[in-house]
DNA sequence: TATTGTTATACTCTATAACTATA
DNA sequence: TATAGTTATAGAGTATAACAATA
């Protein structure tokens, strides 16, 4: 892919650096709420309909089930997420995003859109459209892979 | 930028998710060495000539100076990095990557290249070239911004 | 006084393992 | 016996603040 195959010249390295740097920014904006980027990711997964249970979240995000308990606890405490037992299988908790949760997602969506605008300014219209397209496809494949092996 | 401006539809969100996920993969591969992705990042910054002192690293990577001390300590202990006092300004430590450090960077570069190949397979040649171009430009601007305000 | 680096300390995030309950 | 979730515990990673040395 990259013409330079030394570590800093790879797309993988750059994705890692840019992505973790962005995660730091999001973390800073979330700090006052006591939430982390992972809380946000979990909430977004639920809202998008990728997950119905805590187990789904753990697999999709590749985090331990015990962490999901904590994330869900804290999201629930803040009124952003609802847990209720699945009547059909009382081991499961069905998760839904509350109105307040939607608000938070929307608010953070605005922050993300502002970042996108800045990226757009740095890349120009052509390249930034291409970046969007590539990232959307990678994200889609990732979700697809991790959704497999679980109805 | 993105046609969908909800959080999960933004480039910023996807960069964050894909980047931190990749960082986890790198962390797993580094585990046996006792190093983290940040150690690797610091080493790469030094090797690329972006930084000459610990202070530079802290600013470029946006981490605390005290963390840089620990990173440098551990890299030095493993013979990957050398610290020597700057004779011209004895407060500073001039950092250089050792041969062993270059080897590690090269090894992790191969891992990154393998990831790039997989990304390429998922995106196809056209899109993956465009992703490379966009990421390279974003990374360049980032380094440029953070190098400013410090000769 | 300002810069560079260090130490001491404490806190946040996360995983592992053992457990409960349901199936 | 297997699955979904929970609790208890411990460890890794990081920042803050106080400090030392040099300029």
Automatic annotation (TrEMBL), chains A, B:
PROSITE patterns: HTH_MARR_2 (PS50995). The lineage of its organism: Bacteria, Bacillati, Actinomycetota, Actinomycetes, Pseudonocardiales. InterPro entries: HTH_MarR-typ, MarR/SlyA-like, WH-like_DNA-bd_sf, WH_DNA-bd_sf. Residues 1-144 form the HTH marR-type domain. This is MarR family winged helix-turn-helix transcriptional regulator. Pfam families: MarR_2 (PF12802).
